Amino acid sequence: MIAPACKRDQVKKHGHDRHGNQRYRCVLCGITWTDEKPQGQLGPMRIPVNTAKLVLRLLLEGNSIRSTERITRVHRDTICRLIVRFGDACRDFLDERMRGLTLTHLQFDEQWTYVVSVAECTFCDFAKFRRLAFYGPTEFGASRWARHAV
Fold first, then answer.
1. How far apart are the first and last CA of the chain?
2. pTM of the prediction?
3. Torsion over CA: 43, 49, 55, 58 (sign)
4. What is the pLDDT of residues 108-142, one digit of tens each?
5. Which of 11, 20, 22, 130 gets the highest tally of CB atoms within 10 A of its CB?
6. Any idea where the domains of the chain sit in the sequence?
7. Residue 115 to residue 118: CA distance in whole angstroms
8. Strand pairing of 22-26 and 32-34?
């Protein structure tokens, strides 16, 4: 083993740190260090992989974070960290694999919104905005409204 600071190979074991990791000390310069433990698939998270899969599967099926917490007995903060970790991994995967695509059209389902030009409907005129939202485009003319999937 080579000391990371002085780059010498004369080292000896020097006890353990508070987490149980082996400490080493350079015989010549006295610098101490610990080797980092290799991290698993979930990085520093200590939950089993099968439990993490179950949490993500329940969330994908439409369960809330709190109901997933009750079912799996995994704390909601851990569930939120798992969601962020999984989202980052998905983003990295898609950034790596989805290159050079030629798309002719995109389709997004189940989210319909009405879009109004900002000049005709400002948030200052809240009453007009509420009327437009309540009655829809047929009452106030469909030319100002465009319905499209987001």
1. 56
2. 0.52
3. positive
4. 665 555 554 544 555 555 555 555 555 555 544 44
5. 11
6. 1-37, 49-97, 112-149
7. 9
8. antiparallel
